[in-house]
Amino acid sequence: MTRKALSAQRYVVRLASVLAALGFIYLIASISLAMILAYRPPMPITRTPASLGLQYRDVTFFSRQDHILLRGWFLPGIRPDGRLTAERTIILVHGMHANRATNLMLGLSAALVHQGLAVFSFDMRGHGDSTPAPLSGGELEQRDVLGAVDFLRSGQLPYPELGRPQVIGGWGISLGAVALLLAAVQEPAIRAIITDSAYATMGSLMRHAFGPAFLFIPGTRVVGLLLYGIDAYDTSPVDVVARIAPRPLFFIHGAADTVVPPSNMFQLAAAASKGPHAQVETWLVPGADHIASYYAANATYTQRVVLFFETELR
Amino acid sequence: MNAEQRIDKPVKIETPQWSMKNSFVPAIGRGLLPLIVTIAIGAFAIVLIMLVRLLVDPVKYFLLQQALFAVIMIGALACIIIAFIVTTRRILKCIKMWREGSETAKVKAATMTMLLVGFVLIVPILLTLLLGAGV
């Protein structure tokens, strides 16, 4: 064998080794990403509505279809005369890796309760005190929202003396917003919906979030399907949101959102407007980053949310 | 004709034109060994994962299921990497031996098969680059 041929052969062996190493790195990264994205230890519940002087009772209920145990709080609304009410109840749905006890959730709960709107906030699967479960980008989480609706309609209410809610509304943020939208498509009992920082498709969000690491998306999807039977990439509220009409929809989004770009809100609003007799409202909050509109607009935010439910849930 | 006569008769052994010494088929087989081992261990890991999914109810025991997945995945990856390195080193030894024996066809076949195995392992990356992230 000539020296030239020997050298070429060595290069080929090295190239083969590099390719194999790349393949293994890809495999390891895909498995790690899929497992990390699917589950992260939940943030503990460190506060209760009592810290804001609100009355509440603990609630446990099950998700629709797969019967996962979920935990939440029911906060009765306070009428101007001080009497409690559950007539109009708003389901609040938190975002990814958050829970029902964040400042935003409790602050908004307080604002709604003081306007005579009852609040039902809960931890989605894999969050807070609810049962550990993999994340699915809203595809499975919508069952939790549907479970909340079932509970309000037929569960053992913590304030039986107040009777069952007459009308149900929903507010959700980020992942919670998507879960709420998907649930509202199936459940006409959710009569008015507010979403904050919702994404139009999980696919576009993943591509945006992964950036140059988008190469790992297919591997992550395959591993996710293999391990959990979940392909969050296909979650696409923009394809179904038109079916919510004629129920009113209010989309809120931070203008400076770097996680879910504001274009997502416009896509969702445009799609929702295609439904028959659609009532779609949008609000782009100046200077607000992802899930920060509440803090950026503060009093205006709560006023607009309360006004929307006051008007639409009469 | 007695037995001795039969034994003494010279037997002509015909050497095939396509000699085993220069045959590249065994070299290809050896070259493919790392891929075969990888696929075998991977398939075994998938079977284990399916068993875990079947036997462990995720609604009640998701954390246990997650832990088992982690053990299976780490174990399978470690086995695959070790097996891959061991089989590759053996091929390289064979290639060296064939080179010293001037068995050029075998050396070429084994080397090219190794390259092919490398390309097979990066197929997902190539597909993503060609077809986009939504593959």
Q: Helices, strands, pairings?
A:
The complex is a heterodimer of chains A (314) and B (135).
Chain A: H1 3-38, E1 57-62, E2 69-75, E3 77-78, E4 84-85, E5 88-93, H2 103-113, E6 118-122, H3 141-154, E7 167-173, H4 175-186, E8 190-196, H5 202-210, H6 216-228, E9 248-254, H7 263-272, E10 279-285, H8 293-297, H9 299-312
Helix pairs in contact in A: 1-6, 3-4
Chain B: H1 3-8, H2 25-55, H3 58-100, H4 104-121, H5 123-131
Describe the structure.
The complex is a heterodimer of chains A (314) and B (135). Chain A has 314 residues and is an alpha/beta fold. In chain A, 39% of the residues lie in helices and 18% in strands. In chain A, the strands form 2 sheets. An 8-stranded mixed beta sheet of chain A has the order 1-2-6-5-7-8-9-10, with helices on both faces. A two-stranded antiparallel ribbon of chain A has the order 3-4. The longest helix of chain A is centred in the first third of the chain and has 36 residues, at 3-38. Chain B has 135 residues and is an all-alpha fold. In chain B, 24% of the residues are buried. The A-B interface holds A 1, 6, 9, 12-13, 15-20, 22-24, 26-28, 30-31, 35, 38-39, 66-68, 126, 131-134, 203, 206-207, 210, 214-215, 217-219, 226-229, 233 and B 34, 46, 49, 53, 58-60, 62-63, 66, 69-70, 73, 77, 80-81, 84, 88, 92, 95, 99, 102, 104, 107-108, 111-112, 114-115, 117-122, 124-125, 127-129, 133-135.
Radius of gyration of chain A: 23 Å
How much of the sequence lies in strands of chain B comes to under 5%
Mean pLDDT of chain A: 95
Helix and strand element order of chain A? HEEEEEHEHEHEHHEHEHH
Low-confidence stretches of chain B: none
The CATH C-level name of the largest domain in chain A is Alpha Beta
Rounded mean pLDDT of chain B is: 84
Strand content of chain A: 15-25%
What CATH architecture label of the largest domain in chain A applies? 3-Layer(aba) Sandwich
Number of helices of chain A: 9
Q: Give the N-terminus to C-terminus distance of chain A in angstroms.
A: 90 Å
Number of domains of chain A: 2
Q: Helix coverage percent of residues of chain B?
A: over 70%
Going across the biggest sheet of chain A, name each strand in turn: 1-2-6-5-7-8-9-10
Pair of chains with the largest interface and how many residues each contributes: A-B, 44 and 43 residues
Total number of strands of chain A: 10
Tell me the radius of gyration of chain B: 24 Å
